[in-house]
């Protein structure tokens, strides 16, 4: 397999101006005709034109109307090369045959539940027709679709519908025209039996936009929330970024077979059905929130991604980091900012930090790839979003907005790079960003240590920072990064001290804002070692550092447990209250892991129980914040902090602490369950979601107890639930322990919901991710359950992905979990390399475990790498993991 490097980027030799596509969709084969008007980049230079094409059968090729003969072009398994095209502009016409019905990779044109649909990002367009499949080729498209009218009554593509009509033989056609230039990865086509929920949105300039959400007829009632989310997103982008929608129609199509969440094709977004369809009975609060976020995300791409796109795939974070940041802020504005931030930071820490510390670590802008699809990662997306967030932290809301305005003004209609975004931020604000660009090129999570000291005579308080960035593959030595640390100081009453000036770099700097002291200031840490001294500090403060998680780093401070308990109780920065509790919990868990490994009895610090109790009973707090604050850090997070990860010890300790908390706070938890039951009909708003979150978190704790009364309570909650959030939480609570109650409840749930594949997927995931001993057997059995299908990505993510998410069973010391995954990956790779490659990633951190586990996991990776006909996708992940 060939590795592609950022440093090798070259401008294309030819640009494409207009592209007219014509599809004749058939039951056996589909014929694609493409007419492209081509302009050489340098006039008169007739270098070869290299077109990408994979799994295509070339029927004919013409230049300026003349059919080319063999010898005029060269065809190999991945390209069509026109050896000597005319100098000057010319028209290329190709006719190609493809087999969408046989396409199980779900990339290019394929069928999902009887309907045709496409997925072109990153490099799927080359499976549709011969093309320069790269994002810096931006052209205007028309698309004519012809198909059987009864089988495919709905025919959709990008842009506006300009003509449609009936044809002979029961066929019909539609002609679509997209007035905006776009890269081919944003091309889309859908044909099938679909119905739409219709609505309209009037833009800020008064244009009326038709909104349509398309699904198979039976799913239509479940699109109300998606439509609400779309309209909210359109409005938010106008208000917050001044971005108006640019066409008169916006379509969303829901399909059940989709590799990822969704795709932002110009004016024709295609969604995995799990991120569109929701009803109170079948979707949880988490599903509702995910739909809001992803509908927003794909819509926001219209400006950040589509109008301004990426020059090459290395720049992916230019659109994804920025758009994730935008969707995070959108969800914050519509819900609770702190709770949203906690969720996003947790995700970053659990998945991205782990990637950054393993064999697949790569910068936000990778330097190389074998298969681009492997780089749609938490680093490019989530760490990329943190990088964008840092601009905003440094510039403030208004400065950031000036930056995005300039970015759109400069680059509308262009394919650009991360430096262009950086330059717009800098130039719009005349800002000094020091070495900020290192965030794009250096991989690894910076580790920052901070020590503090108070000088009672001088009334000064000093913070000394030191930073290192750990080595990552291909980057042994790192430079210090530019880290914005938002900081405040708490007085002995827990109130913020007013901050007005700081000694830094031998100078006294004012941190006041408009002459007024501030509660939080952003320290710009740029060196390996650096000191900041706050002046006029009347008493010894407790520092609150990295407020709102102002940089994606690991921070080690010299705060004592008492300081942390104080911050947990008082910090005005709610994120840091949660953070203080998490640091305490991590310390406790790590110390108990040592006890477990030494066969000592496990104990739980009463002060911690007390701290949790105070949070539980604090009625001034947001209920979802309470739910988050009483949730212990995940097992992965704790394993990440160990020299040698020990899944059994971490699992046992986490279970012990949960049970201990449940038993000591039993009455309080029971009260919370009873006080927060759902009495009215389901409403998706923050207050109601928060109430359900608290109730269900409490229920989960209680269910860890061996207690008749509690078993009754949990069953009662299951039976009386009126929405999926409550029903599924109760089911999960019951399913914590093996036995008849569990078996009965799981069977009952399946009986009730077997007609709804999205709910059945939850049922798969709940069982596969279970920590009950020897679960690999059950998962094996579920593979042959009639509702399971290896060809459907959602089912694979639920059953196989779910299993890998359970550390005790996946990392079972007898190697049964590894063997299970190894076999599946090889099988899956033949059907769908992208999904197989996601699954194989579960092995990538095998070196973190003990020798026995290492050998077992390594053996599976070696088996995979040597499998016949392995895809580049899986090869890249597996071989890099072994390296
Ligand atoms: N841009 C798509 C992801 C495409 C993944 C290709 N393997 C969805 C998104 O991030 O909005
Ligand atoms: Zn995206």
UniProtKB/TrEMBL annotation:
> Where does the secretion signal sit in this chain?
none
Which BP terms in the Gene Ontology apply to this protein? proteolysis
Write down the Gene3D superfamilies for this protein, in alphabetical order: 2.60.40.1840, 3.30.2010.30, Neutral Protease Domain 2, Peptidase M1, alanyl aminopeptidase, C-terminal domain, tricorn interacting facor f3 domain
- Peptidase M1 alanyl aminopeptidase Ig-like fold domain residues are 444-557
SUPFAM superfamilies attached to this UniProt entry: Leukotriene A4 hydrolase N-terminal domain (SSF63737), Metalloproteases ('zincins'), catalytic domain (SSF55486)
Catalyzes what?
Answer: Release of an N-terminal amino acid, preferentially alanine, from a wide range of peptides, amides and arylamides
For this protein, the record's InterPro entries field holds: Aminopeptidase_N-like_N, Aminopeptidase_N-like_N_sf, PepN_Ig-like_sf, Peptidase_M1, Peptidase_M1_dom, Peptidase_M1_pepN, Peptidase_M1_pepN_C, Peptidase_M1_pepN_C_sf
Question: In the Enzyme Commission scheme, what number(s) does this protein have?
Answer: 3.4.11.14
- Per the entry, which co-factors are needed? Zn(2+)
- Please report the stretch or stretches of sequence annotated as the Aminopeptidase N-like N-terminal domain: 20-186
- Look up the domain of life of the source: Eukaryota
Q: Would you tell me the protein name for this molecule?
A: Puromycin-sensitive aminopeptidase
Species this protein is from? Helianthus annuus
Taxonomic lineage of the native organism: Eukaryota, Viridiplantae, Streptophyta, Embryophyta, Tracheophyta
């Amino acid at each position: 397999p060939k590795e592609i490097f950022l440093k090798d980027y070259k401008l294309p030799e030819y640009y494409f101006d207009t592209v007219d596509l014509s599809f004749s969709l058939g039951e056996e084969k589909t014929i694609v005709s493409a007419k492209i008007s081509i302009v050489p980049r340098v006039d008169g230079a007739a270098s070869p034109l290299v077109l990408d094409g994979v799994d295509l059968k070339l029927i004919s090729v013409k230049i300026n109307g003349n059919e080319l003969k063999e010898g005029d072009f060269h065809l190999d398994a991945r390209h069509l090369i026109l050896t000597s095209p005319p100098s000057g502009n010319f028209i290329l016409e190709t006719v190609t045959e493809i087999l969408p019905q046989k396409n199980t990779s779900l990339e290019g044109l394929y069928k999902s539940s009887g309907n045709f649909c496409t997925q072109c990002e990153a490099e799927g367009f080359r499976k549709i027709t011969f093309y320069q499949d790269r994002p810096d080729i931006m052209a205007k498209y028309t698309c004519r679709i012809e198909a059987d009218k009864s089988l495919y009554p709905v025919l959709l593509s990008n842009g506006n519908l300009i003509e449609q009509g009936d044809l002979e033989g029961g066929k019909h056609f539609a002609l679509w025209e997209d007035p905006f230039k776009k890269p081919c990865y944003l091309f889309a086509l859908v044909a099938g039996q679909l119905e739409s929920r219709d609505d309209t949105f009037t833009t800020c300039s008064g244009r009326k936009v038709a909104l349509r959400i398309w699904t198979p007829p039976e799913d239509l009632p479940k699109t109300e929330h998606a439509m609400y989310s779309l309209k909210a997103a359109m409005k938010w982008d106008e208000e917050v970024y001044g971005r108006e929608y640019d066409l008169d129609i916006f379509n969303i199509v829901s399909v059940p077979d989709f590799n990822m969440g969704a795709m932002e094709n110009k004016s024709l977004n295609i969604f995995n059905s799990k991120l569109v369809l929701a009803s109170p009975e079948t979707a949880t609060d988490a599903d509702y929130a995910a739909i809001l976020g992803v509908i927003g995300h794909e819509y926001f791409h219209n400006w950040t991604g589509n109008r301004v796109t990426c020059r090459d795939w290395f720049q992916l974070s230019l659109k994804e980091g920025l758009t994730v940041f935008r969707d995070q802020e959108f969800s914050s504005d519509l819900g609770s900012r702190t709770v949203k931030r906690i969720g996003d930071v947790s995700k970053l820490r659990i998945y991205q930090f782990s990637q950054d510390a393993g064999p697949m670590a790569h910068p936000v802008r990778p330097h190389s790839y074998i298969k681009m699809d492997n780089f749609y990662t938490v680093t490019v997306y989530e760490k990329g979003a943190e990088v964008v967030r840092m601009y905003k932290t440094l510039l403030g809301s208004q400065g950031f907005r000036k930056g995005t305005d300039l970015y759109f003004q400069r680059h509308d209609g262009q394919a650009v790079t991360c430096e262009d975004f950086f330059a717009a931020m800098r130039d719009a604000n005349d800002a000094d960003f020091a070495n900020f660009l290192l965030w794009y090129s250096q991989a690894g999570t910076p580790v920052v240590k901070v020590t503090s000291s108070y000088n009672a005579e001088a009334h000064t308080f000093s913070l000394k920072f030191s930073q290192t960035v750990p080595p990552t593959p291909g980057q042994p030595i790192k430079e210090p990064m530019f880290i914005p640390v938002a900081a405040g100081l708490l007085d002995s009453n827990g109130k913020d001290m007013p901050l007005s000036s700081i000694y830094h770099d031998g100078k006294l700097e004012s941190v006041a804002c408009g002459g007024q002291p501030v509660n939080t200031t952003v320290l710009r840490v740029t060196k390996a070692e650096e000191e900041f001294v706050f002046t006029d500090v009347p008493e010894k403060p407790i520092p609150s550092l990295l407020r709102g998680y102002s940089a994606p780093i690991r921070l080690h401070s010299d705060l004592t447990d008492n300081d942390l308990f104080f911050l947990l109780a008082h910090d005005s920065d709610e994120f840091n209250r949660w953070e203080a509790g998490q640091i305490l919990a991590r310390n406790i868990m790590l110390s108990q892991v040592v006890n477990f490994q030494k066969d000592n009895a496990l104990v739980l610090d009463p002060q911690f129980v007390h701290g949790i109790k105070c949070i539980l009973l604090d009625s001034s707090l947001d209920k979802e914040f309470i739910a988050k604050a009483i949730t212990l850090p995940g097992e992965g997070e704790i394993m990440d902090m160990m020299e040698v990860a020990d899944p059994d010890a971490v699992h046992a300790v986490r279970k012990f602490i949960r049970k201990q908390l449940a038993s000591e706070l039993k009455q309080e938890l029971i009260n919370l369950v009873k006080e927060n039951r759902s009495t009215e009909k389901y409403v998706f708003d923050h207050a109601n979601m928060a109430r359900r979150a608290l109730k269900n978190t409490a229920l989960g704790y209680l269910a860890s107890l061996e207690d008749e009364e509690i078993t009754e309570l949990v069953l009662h909650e299951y039976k009386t639930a009126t929405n999926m959030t409550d029903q599924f939480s109760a089911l999960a609570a019951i399913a914590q322990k093996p036995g008849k109650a569990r078996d009965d409840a799981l069977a009952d749930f399946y009986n009730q919901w077997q007609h709804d594949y999205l709910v059945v997927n939850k049922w798969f995931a709940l069982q596969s991710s279970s920590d009950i001993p020897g679960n690999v057997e059950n998962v094996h059995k579920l593979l042959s359950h009639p509702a399971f299908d290896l060809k459907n990505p959602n089912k694979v993510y639920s059953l196989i992905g779910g299993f890998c998410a359970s550390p005790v069973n996946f990392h079972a010391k007898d190697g049964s979990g590894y063997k299970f995954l190894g076999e599946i990956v090889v099988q899956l790779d033949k059907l769908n390399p992208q999904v197989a490659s996601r699954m194989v990633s579960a092995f990538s951190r095998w070196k973190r475990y003990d020798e026995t586990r290492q050998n077992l996991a390594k053996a599976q990776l070696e088996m995979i790498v040597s499998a016949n006909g392995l895809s580049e996708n899986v090869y890249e992940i597996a071989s890099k993991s072994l390296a």
